[in-house]
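Handout, section B. The chain below has 767 residues.
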Amino acid sequence: MNKLKTKPTPKVKISSYTEKATAIPKTPAGGYALRCFFTALISFTATFGKMVGFPSFMNVAVAALAGRYSAAALLGTAISCAATGSFDSQAVQLGAMLIFTALNIFFPDFSKGSNPIRLSLYTAGITLLLSTLTNVVSTSSFTVSMRMISSLLCACTVYAAAFIYQAVQSSNPLKISGLNAVYLCMIYMMATVTLCSCQIGIFNLGRIFACIAIPIAAKKRRSAGAAVMGALSTISITMCSSSLAVNTMLLAAAGLICSAFADLGRVAMALAFMISASAALATTGLNGDTFNMLSDIIAASVIFTALPSSFFNRALSCFIIVGGAADSASQTASSRLSFAAMTISDIRQKLIAVTDTVEARAESITLSERIMEQLCDGCRLYDECRKNGCAKGVQANCLKKDCRAVGCIRADELDEAVKCCIQRELDERAEAMRMREMRELFHEQLGSMSDLLNDISCRLSRRREIDVKLSSSAKAYFEREGFTGVRACVYIDENFSRHAEIYLSGGFEGEALSLTAGLCRTLECDFELPGITCADRLTKLEFDEKPPFSADFGSYAALGSQASCSGDALENVGCSAGERYILLSDGMGSGKRARLDSAMSLSLAAHMLHSGISMATVQRIINSVMRVKDWEESFATLDFLKLDLFSGRAEFLKSGAAPAYLCRDGSMIKIDCDSYPAGIFTSSSPDLFSCKLFDGDILMLASDGAPFEALECAAQIAYDSPDIGADSLAYAIGSRCVSLVSEKTQKTDDITLAIVKISYKKDKNSV
């Protein structure tokens, strides 16, 4: 029997860009050599770069950005010059790279902590100085002006690349808006200009690179992305060579056409781009570059199709492309909720500080001091007693009721003062305990409120992208169906699955099945039947894309021998097509009292889970509710199972519950817990587990009345009968539990089982 255990998540400290640059870790010899090789290769390629026929300074930018690897960049440029015999035309570049290499060798701290402004100023100063010295012996005005322009452009490129690198190294994705977008466009254009100078046979690397970037932009941002990237590609290729620009004006149009096929997949997009670009190429007429351009288009389309989906997702995960107002509103709402949660957390910390201060002050006053204060209050000899030390003697002997030994004139009032002070101290302690309990409860409620806001913020942030085009299509469809006041929003979540939210004025009158079928045809997506919510003359329809996993649910319940009703409660909650919860609670005791606790807990949990609250926050709130009930002490176990049918993951939350089980390939994995039921302590942390799901997995929740000897047969039954349904499996196991318990003892506990059978339906296409 294997027991599923979780390891604590290590705390990872994310350093800033400056800290990383200041403390460079020691790189293994193999890693250092590999980085040197790639730096030399990039510099070797950049040396071929031309701008309007003049050698560019992009290899100098590589050396400036390479830091301690600048020597490798210098070596790559030297090899390229030796192979092409271009030492004369690369004199300024070689000199600038040699200076950067010397600075990094003789001043190791030169490349540490470099900010973009300082690095770009060094680049501009070095290249302009060398260009000025070289221009003294040059008689061509074109050469002089191009060296100056190239120097400034190189410095701007260094600043843009260093700035973007600094932003990407932070923990948050880079927002592509404002200056960030300008800098990225500059880097893309310089990379395209450089690669366009590299010709391998009939293939031009720059045009292949541009023809891959355009469909990627079209897939991410549809027609807007294709148009922008196509225009940038055309300008970049023109900057390299005017002869290459004859056939590149068609790239933007081809990108716009292929963006219309984005919903059909990458193969359809590649074919649309290749066909439209080839057709446009044919209309321009034959020239010396026509067949080379056709070869570049075909090669780029093949590479775009062959690249795995994970490559696009990983490459774009570092960036956030800011879109329309809906995206901005979602991000703003999420940020404000997070800020409110942080404010509540600050209040909680201040409340803790106040509690500690009040308790420390109360404990600082002793009983002897209280008696002394009351006994000596208003006494005419108090000042004299303090001077001659009698006051200290009275305080030392007051609890012994022996004040006469020190000659106190109020010794007869001692008994009454002691009784009064003891009673006052007891009252103050009781009040302090009550106030402390109220502060602890308030502290717990603030924590729950903070968790609620964080959960809602997290729910809002799951919307990766709102598709304006599909939202308009959905709105137009419902208006054609005769609905009024239609507002539609189609968005993509973190699992790259589509969701549609439709708001209608008035009530909903129509057939949900036919309406869903029409929406599926309109948006070319397979949706589940909608969830319908009506409030204040407004109807909300929620359509979720069908997930690749499905869950078959079955249950079994049996009463204990002396129970009028079961103390267990079971709920099957479907929040959406891909999010499902199985909730099981066992109230302490038996009969109606236990049933009340368990049913109340699950009813509250179901409503909060429907609202988007996480399981951990739900458990925390239920724990608080159970503790503030007016009648005597009550508590209940909580056993929650969350199924994510899009990503294929299961999450368990257990608070004092009996073990759960995962059956896979005829074996069982026990999922146990060490936590306490809800309602016992002020703060009770649950046990959390998660696992990946596969086709045929069986998940089983059971109350403590079900013996393990009967439950362990579940894996074998499921393995021997792979087509058995969840209901049939639950009945078979439940019957064995009842029979086994009856054989051992006449007194039985309530038995409740929940069985979930997982099936995998299809491959999930990435968006």
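Note. Residues 1-26, 322-329 have pLDDT under 50 and may be disordered. Compare this with the example in section A.
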